[in-house]
Each structure stands twice: as C-alpha cells, then as structure tokens.
Amino acid sequence: MGLYTYEDRKSPKTARISRLVDHLFEKMPEIEPARAVLITESYKETENEPMIIRRAKAFEHILENIPIVIREDELIVGSTTIAPRGCQTYPEFSFEWLEAEFDTVQSRTADPFSITEETKAKLREAHKYWKGKTTSELATAYMTKETLRAIEHNIFTPGNYFYNGVGHVTVQYEKVLAIGYEGIIEEVQNEWKKYDPGVEDYVKRSHFYEAVITSCRAVITYAQRYAKLARSQAASCADPVRREELLRIAENCERVPAKGASGFYEACQSFWFVQQLLQIESSGHSISPGRFDQYMYPYYKADVDSGRISCEFAQELLDCIWVKLNDLNKCRDAASAEGFAGYSLFQNLIVGGQNKDGIDVTNDLSFMCIDASMHVHLPAPSLSIRVWNGTPHELMIKAAELTRTGIGLPAYYNDEVIIPALQNRGLTLQDAREYNIIGCVEPQKAGKTEGWHDAAFFNMCRPLELVFSNGMDKGEQIGPRTGDVTRMETFEEFYQAYKEQMNYNIELLVNADNAIDVAHAERCPLPYLSCMVDDCIRRGKTVQEGGAVYNFTGPQGFGVANMADGLYVIKKLVFDEKKVTMKEFKEMLSLNYGKGLDETTLTEIASEIIKEIRDNGKEISPEQVAAIVTAIRETAESPQFRERGQKLLDMIEEVPKFGNDISEVDAFARDVAYTYTRPLETYKNPRGGTYQAGLYPVSANVPLGAQTGATPDGRLAHTPVADGVSPAAGRDKFGPTAAANSVAKLDHYIASNGTLFNQKFHPSALSGRQGLENFAALIRSYFDQKGSHMQFNVVDRETLLDAQKNPDKYKHLVVRVAGYSALFTTLSRALQDDIINRTEQGL
Amino acid sequence: MDYRDTKGRIFDIQRFSVHDGPGIRTIVFLKGCVLRCRWCCNPESQKYEIETMTVQGRKKVIGRDVSVWEVMETVVKDRPYYRRSGGGLTLSGGESLLQPEFAASLLRASKESGINTALESTACAPFENISKLLPWLDTYLLDIKHMNADRHREFTGKSNELILENAKRIAGTGFGELVIRVPVIPGFNDTKKEIEDIADFACKLPGVKKMHLLPYHRLGQDKYAGLGRKYELDGVLPPAGKHMEMLKKAAEDKAGIICQIGG
C-alpha cells in the first residue's frame, strides 16, 4: 500500500460552508415555473421539425432565458432555481399528476413543495399544450392491456420512467474537463465530415450532430450569462474580498465549460455545470458524478504540487460542490414521493477502488471527499466507497468514522463481486474494473452505458397472492389459472404455481419497460447527455436510440425475505409437517390472521363472493350484500377466529427464518430470489441490450407493502415488505454477523443491477478506535463471502423517537433509507416507523 | 472418544461480541459459578442446575447440555469475521473452570480450526483445572475484584487468596497474554486507593501489561426479578465517566500499566 499524504482533519469546515448550508434550509423548497413555460414556448415554435432538433432548440431556449442567481457566499455557481432547493418541472414527460396535486403538494407528508398561485396559473397555461404529447401518454399507448391491468393491480410499478426522464447515468465528466464543449463541438464536426448526404443514415445522423452542437453552444452561453452576472455583482460589491471572489467566478465561467479546465478551481466549476445542466435537459434522477476522486485528481495534484492552491482551499471547493448537490431538487407525484422519500436525487459519488489495470487508485481526494461529507453533513452526494482486498485500511477507517456520525453514508461496495458480475453481462474486464455506482446501488461503466437502472419495482409478494386466488385479484382474472391451491398435493406443485405467476408478470413488466423505452426514444431523445456517452457521436444517435456501448434495463424485485420465509413456512407447516391445511392457511391470509380488516379488503372479499353467486346465475339483493359484508366482518373479528389466527402465527414464529445463518433456509432463499432474477435475464430491450435484475426497493417497500395483503411468513396485511435483501424486520435474532452470512448466501452476481443490504447499528457498537476496526472488519468479512453492498444506520432508537416528537430539533438528522440518505423528519410517518423498527444490531 | 464429544452445560452463545477480547468474537457462556458477586449481571449463570427465568413475561429454560461439536457448529460460522478482526472464541460464564474438560476441549477445537481463544474467568478454582486450559488459550481475562480478603468475601462470598495465588502461577507459565480486569463497583472498590492496590498487584505479575476497568452497569437487574431473587445493589448508580477517567489515570500512574475503560 502507498502512504497517503492526506492528514486527518487538515482542512476544517469553514464558516462559509456553515452559512451556505443554513441558507439552503431556510424554507420549504418551492416549485418554479420558468422551465415549463420556456420549453412550451419553444415547442410551439418548432412543431414541424425533427424531434431531436426540437429538443436541442428547447434546451437552448431554456438556457438562454431561465432566471439565474449567484447565492451569497458561493464559490461554485449555477442554480436551477432562484429559491434554494427549488425545482423546475418537466411537462414533456408528464404533467397531469402535478396539476391534480397543485393544492396538496404543499401539505403532503413526504417531500412537500410550496407553490404560489402565480406559478400554478403559469403551469396550467403551459400544460394546455402538452395534452397527448408526453412520453407517458405514448408509453401507455404502446403497452398491452394485460400490462396496464397488472400495473393497475400493483403487481409492479414502472412509475419512475413512466412519468419522468430516465437519468441514471454517469457521463464523461473527464472529457468536458479536458477539452470543454468547444472541443466536443469540434469532435462532432470532424465526425460529421466523414459522412456524405447520400449515406443511408445521414438524415438522422446529421440532425443528431446538429442537435449536439446547438446544445453544447447553449451550455457555453449559459456559463457566459453567469460570467456577466458575476462581473456586474462585483462592480457593485462593497466588500473587497467578495469582489475578488466574484471576479474569479466570472473568469472561471468565461473559460469553462467552453474550454478545458486549466486548474482545480476551474475543474470544479466545469464539473458543476455538467452536473446541473444534465438535470435541466431532463428530469431523470440518479445522475451520478461517479469516480469524482479519479477524474478530478490530475487537476488537484498539479495545483497543489505547484502551490497554485492550498489543500484548505481545495477542500472548501469540494465542500461547496457538496452543498450545490443539495441545491438541486425534484418534485415527484405523491405516490412516487413515498417511494423515493427524502427529496433525494441519488447523485452517487464513489471513491476508491481499482483502475482499469486492477491497481488500487485511492488518493488524497478520496479522503477529502469523505471529509466533505463530514463537513456538509447532508444527504447528497450519495457517497460510496469501493472496497476490495487492496483497499487501504486507512480509507476503511476514515469511511467508518463517517458512518459513525449517523449520516447513513457512505455505502460500501464490493469490487470482488461487482467486477465479475459486470463481466458476466458483457463488459470487458478493463471496463468492469472502472465501474461506479448509479443512484442507489446500481453498477455501470461510466460514459459508455445506458443502464435504465431503476426501471420498475416488482413486488414479489403479489404473485404469491395470485397463487392463493388462482390468478384472481379484486374480482378480475389478472394472472394465469394455476389451479385451486387447496387441492395441491406437493410443495413442488405449489412452488411451480408461484413460478408461473412470477413468469407471467415478469413478461408484462418487460412489456411495460420496453413501451416506455420506445416512448423516450421517440419523444425525448437527449442530445446534450448523449454527447458525453460513448459511442453516441460515432454511431450518430442518442443513448435513447441505442447510442451507448452497453445497454441494460434493470427493474428491481423486492420482498425476497418475505417470500423466502413465506414459502418455507408453507413447505414446512402445510406439506412436510401437515400441521395446517392449505384451506385454513388461505382463509387466514384473506382475513389477515384475525388481526383486523380494513374496509377496502372487506369490500373486495365480499365482491368476490357476490360475483361467484352471480356467476352461478343467482340474483342478489342489496340487503343480502350487506348481510354478506357483516358476516365476513363478524367471522374475522370473532374471538374463535382471532384465537386460531394467533395460534397459526405462533406456529409460523417457530419456523426457522432467513437472516439467522441457517444453511437450509438460506439456500431456500437463494432459490426464491432466482424466481425473479433468472427469468428476467432472458429478455432484451429495444436498445439492443439485456435485462438484469436488481434486488432492492429504494423506500418502496413501505408504500407498496401497504398495497399487499397478509403473507404466509406472518407478515400482516398492508405492513411494509422486507427492505432489499435484508432479513424481514425483527426476524434476524443472532446479530449482524448471522444476518450478513445469510444475505451473503444469496447469489449477488446474477442480481447485477445491485442488491441492497441495510444494517442498523447503535452508536455504542462503533465507539472508540476498536469500534471502527471491528466495523471495518465486519464489512470486509461480509465482502469475503461475496456480498455486494452494505450500508448502515447508526443512530439510537431514542433519538429517532424524539425526532418524531420534535421534528424542529432534528431538521438535519440524516438516516439511511435505502440506497441513499435522507432527512429523517422529511420522511412519512410510516417510513419513519419502519426505520425505527429495523432490528437494532450490536447492542 | 473424540474429545469433541465432551459435553458441558452452557446457557447462551452470543455472536458479534466486541467487548470481551480482541476483535469480533463469539462468546460461549458456561453455567455454574463459585462466586456470588452482588453486582453479577448474569445471575442465571451462577447455579449449575438448569433453571427457569421469566423473560419479558415468558418462562425461559436457562441451561442446556451440549457437546463441543454442537457449540463449534455455531462458533465456526463467524470465521470470516475472526480472520478480518483478529477475533475468535471467548469462554465466559459462570465460571468455565468448573467444567475444565469441556472448556479445554472447546478451546482446543477452536485452536485446531485456527480460531483465536480467550477466557473470561475468576481463576477461583484449583490450578490443575486452569493448567488444562492454558495450552489452548491465547488471552486470559482474569478478574481481580479486590485486594482485601474480607471485603472480597463480603461482596462475592469467597476470599480472594486462591485467586491471587492462581494469578501469580498463571503469569508464571508465560502462556499467552494475561489481562487483569476489574469490575468497578460503587461502594465496593471504586476508590483511588482500592484501584491502585489492584494495579500494583497486576503490574508485578510477570508479562502483564494491560488492565481493563469495567464500569458497573445495571443491565442485569431485571433478571433477578425474573429468577425471583432480590437485587442487592438496588439504587446503586453506574460510576461517572469522569470518575472512571480518574481511576484509569491513578492505575496508570501508580503501576505504569496500560489501562483501558471497558473491555
């Protein structure tokens, strides 16, 4: 191992950073109308032009006219909204939900935004244009009716890209830092020259090149607007120190990102414009800076070695970028906001790991990035650490110190699993070694991949409900008829029925994602993003049209632990030991083990019975309907039924569960995960790539759990489903090593879109130097056993309970939600409760 | 008979333990103890007989007889963690020396599997029992609670003479690492003088370099009620952090020993 010149806490947090952070959180984030108004103006002007040109012209129109601001004390500039943490809107993807939620978006529990009446009026006016023109409407038109029905019945939700841009990419920041957009324009012009108008794809190719050039010029113009603003503010600035700062900002923006960066400060500014403007072009989230410590390092090293800047100033610039990453925001529809709670944009920034030749390239910036997260102490960026056998111990300890602060950062990733997993998907060894993480936990090779990493959430519990109902849901036949469950004679028969329901719905999921994929290619190709992803320029097309070298679609399955436990319970209690009949089990599940039924469920059960009666040709009066509802309620709430329910729950409790390091159960869980991961990898997407499964829910396990009935693992109806590949909450009884051993026994290679393992620690488990050492050892040991990802919440229960009671006291309390960190007090009550109830390890 | 067929009586196995010996460890708690320390946080460990204790309203059987095989099946599961952290197996109790064949076999099975071993013990047993364990032992965490025999008898039920004698003999064998541990109990041994006396004794033991001061805690209090017993230290508060720091400094100044608070 090399020795790192970085010294611990060499560069403390400056007063400027505290002021910037305070300013950021002064008020509730706000929705601003400028982008929506501008894009609508532009689209109206370009109706007869090719879509790619329309996109570029709209981008240009926005960047030339959107209001700009330099916030007090800023050293790195570029703000998407006037108000801090504000957001713009993106009607070209979808708009109806926003208009429907105008009056509730401010008061909702998850991620509220304020919105003025004036903004509402402007948006309403703009929205008139978009009816029938959005990607979501086109995607809907492309889907089969079975697919739409499965979505309606909450088997899976492709909502993310259905209603928004895709994002989920890491572009070639290093290219912009090196040659600037002038360099990229030149590259495109040279490429264009190679083709004559008679070449078969010239028509599309030439328009793509034109669109890229327009977009790059628009970005240069935008930076020049900032340069002018900085100069004019400098001219009227009374404070000589700030005046100098503003003049320096102006100089930076005059040079970058038009040209290559000549030093670290310019590199930081150039990086920021790329990061910010990708998020003006499209509303996609998880636009991830990736291996920031690698592509920024040459600029840092040259400047520090030559004495052009001090380490302290370099740290302050990093801290400023960290603040800016929290300045960006996005308003999602109410349901999605629950699933992605915490205002998160999942801008994943990763440090450490190997280079393309397999040599560890941890450097001083890797450490300084960790310090930046300590200084700023906010959810963004989603800081990640790459870990392998060659990772220096110093980096692990430094990272563990950050974990100990309770911020839920960093997340740890295992090179030894991810590199071969990506090779298995067709990446070259050299590309795989250079992976970074997108969004929550999804690995890709930066600048070469269109990974569609967060393509959908697939609830693995719902197909099991369909097994019990023979494919019926809410009175509709939505799945295959896999037979009367009470007549199944072997567990194999039962398991086969589950697989059939899975396969059927997985195919519909693929249909949904492919429909959305085509809709994006047709209606929202992104020329600006595409000029920073290989091989778009050479191929002459956008990433949406298949321009990237590597193409994937990665929808997430969740509920592995519930299904592993639940199917195992059925195997043991119904088939092996014959302690319970399937009929009894079926009844218990539909009546929630006697633990109470909500009105919706009650109505659903009643309607099924009524339908059956009617199907048999009998008439049924309203009085009889009422009588049926009452009878069901009385049965479900009778003491006898409750007692039977409790007895069954006690029996279930005794069956061994996933998460306790029991070989037989863990092997079973591995097989259950394959019911999702294996069928999925056989499908292809319209960009010429393949599907690859992820096993993580972001925070969707809570809202989607609310739409799921009772499951045979003893999980009650409408309660959260297990988080990621973690054991179901409270079921792992033998501490973190046992839980980690169980999780490591899943196949993390096949789930190459990422797995997510959450552990929660009490701070006492990490106290002292020894605590950090043990913590680092725990991570390494899980990784030795080929786990892929690990993250931690380090906060005590009392703190969280107190934060629920006194949210004002805990405005800055950050917790790890899923693949990202969020402010605890901004989460919905249900998600807060879920985090509190996760097994507390290490006490 | 394979030595791993040896049976013994345990009452718990606790994984991911980070306070009793180096690294991440698995602690096997053996049942039965000769002392009756008033502050004992595992009162269910004291009797050798299998008993029932009420835990959160439910009756729980405390104690089961198991072979070395059965224990090792759990112990080896965390081998990756031991390897990365320098951890391993710790025998605790109760007092392992009351089951010397079983304890020695557990330690031997661990060493033969390449697992580091530690023993948390009162050393209140015939030395021949102790010597059976030493060949397989890396770290001996030995409790010295008080230097005054009468005080010791009053609070633990037994005099300290055998313990002190054994401490000297164990140190004399030069086996591995001997660490002296002191539970710091307010009203019993928490004065500067009392801790200094123990430190003084510890530093004169050949090879002893470290001492642990373990602050009294009340986490075992509910168990007394669960066993239908009276908790005699009711109302005693854990020592303040500042006080512990003072004692640590006193021990270090007096004896030049490396002293840490907590295990």
Question: Can you characterise this structure?
Answer:
The complex is a heterodimer of chains A (843) and B (263). With 843 residues, chain A is an alpha/beta fold. In chain A, 51% of the residues lie in helices and 7% in strands. In chain A, the strands form six sheets. In chain A, strands 2-3-4-15-14-18 form a six-stranded mixed beta sheet. Chain A has a three-stranded mixed beta sheet with strand order 1-8-12. In chain A, helix 2 packs across helix 3, helix 7 packs across helix 22 and helix 12 runs parallel beside helix 15. The longest helix of chain A has 34 residues, at 202-235. The model of chain A has no long low-confidence stretch (mean pLDDT 92). Chain B has a single domain (3-261), classed as Alpha-Beta Barrel (TIM Barrel). Helices cover 34% and strands 25% of the residues of chain B. Chain B is built from nine helices and eleven strands. Chain B has helices at residues 68-75, 79-85, 100-112, 127-133, 149-156, 161-173, 192-203, 221-226, 241-255; strands spanning 7-17, 25-30, 51-55, 58-62, 64-67, 88-92, 116-121, 139-143, 177-184, 210-215, 258-261. A nine-stranded mixed beta sheet of chain B has the order 5-1-2-6-7-8-9-10-11. Chain B has a two-stranded antiparallel sheet with strand order 3-4. In chain B, helix 4 (127-133) links the parallel strand 7 (116-121) and strand 8 (139-143). In chain B, helix 3 (100-112) packs parallel to helix 4 (127-133). The termini of chain B are far apart. The model of chain B has no long low-confidence stretch (mean pLDDT 94). Chains A and B meet through helix 32 and helix 33 of A and strand 1 and helix 2 of B.
